[in-house]
Amino acid sequence: SDVCSSDLIEFTVAKSERISLIVYNILGQQVKVLVNRELNAGKHVVNFDASGLSSGIYIYKLMGSSVNLTKKMILLR
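Structure (tokenized):
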């Protein structure tokens, strides 16, 4: 799993489809929905506004009909 401390999440979508990008805390509780809409094929960059979240490890899940990705990130304050 990739570890990033940046506020940007980059990903590529193979085809135009509905994508959801959801952030969970280490307990598996949903803390933010970053994307839940139709996206065009290509590279996308999403800003992760972590205001209100404490430092620690978070998991984000990128889900669509052609993509299913889970990555770990470390939020540093």
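The longest strand covers residues 30-39. Residues 24 and 31 are 5 Å apart (CA to CA).
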